[in-house]
Amino acid sequence: MSRLQAEHLYKVFGRRPEDAVRQLQGGADRTELRADGTTAAVIDASIEVDEGQIFVVMGLSGSGKSTLLRMLNGLLEPTAGTVRFDGQDLTSLSGKELRRVRSEKISMVFQHFALFPHRSVLENAAYGLEVQGVPRAERERRATEALALTGLEGWEKSWPDELSGGMQQRVGLARALATDADLLLMDESFSALDPLIRRDMQDQLLELQKTLKKTIVFITHDLNEAMRLGDKIAVMRDGRIVQTGSAEDILVRPANDYVASFIQDVDRTKVLTAGAVMDEVGTVLGSTTDKGTKLGTAAEFRAAAPATVGVDTPLAELFVPCSTSTVPVAVTDAQGELVGAVPVAKLLAVLGEPGRPEPAAEAAAPATAAKGKVIAGA
């Protein structure tokens, strides 16, 4: 079920922003507007985030992703468009009403920690609850629980400058979790961390999400981070969302040449799964192997296949079995039912050059993408 919807959002800075929106709607690009001293940061952006989903917005610096995030909780007022959370139009709220929603329902985790140096770790984690007016004993109890969730049990009385960068970011995450907000907005939250600490924080977020099942919008410029964390990913360029889909959709069916070039260095063996690239099982049933064995039934095919794997098996594990037989690898679902096959030619094709851009309608609903998923450890 969808919890957050942004529809046709525009954010224009400069003179006569409403006129600029009309020009953009009429086909103008932001280069033309810049000549008049107007900057179009976000152009006609629409997203839909389901309950319990990590929705990643990915793009290079200046693509508009952070501006989009700030419109989702009202830190920036859209020039045009609407934002709805649990059916409530946030763009129509008064300042007081919007502050209440931000205090109770939406938490934000910043890139640079944003901790108060004169407050202890516990006081920092409890700050959002203090703003809500929660009694001290209750907010300290909830903050202590949140710190334990993020691996900081025993550090409650420490000061921020006594913590490493990764630990400080955990305090920021604990502060967001302590309020029990329905929506977490994370703006480049791990990008200031060293690579190993960054990966540890990604692990932490994925582990917490298994239990808490928060609705999360995560902003990043790092493609590998997006592929690792995102249940759904939106790719932005020059203020526009140019493709939205799962990691499999984007890797196998890039919407245009820009997306194809953006993803060309991704190690697909660590991201794609057998279920994401498999052919339907009907393509092999009824065929004959090079040794004359007929594969008329599912049982005959599974007996001849060099291996049987689940839909979540990473492609890296298919190379050996594919190299030992001309028969495709069999793919089964969680119930052990045969659902597809991965022939060696398909495996090599997927791991070769990035796929050709496809029309958006085709890219939005691939026949097989729903059967696989991203491997969390990619």
UniProtKB/TrEMBL annotation:
GO MF entries: ATP binding; ATP hydrolysis activity
Position of the signal peptide: none
Sequence ranges assigned to domain ABC transporter in this UniProt record: 4-263
Keywords (A to Z) from UniProt: ATP-binding, CBS domain, Nucleotide-binding, Transport
GO cellular component annotations of the record: membrane
Listed SUPFAM superfamilies: P-loop containing nucleoside triphosphate hydrolases
Domain of life, per lineage: Bacteria
Record protein name field: Glycine/betaine ABC transporter ATP-binding protein
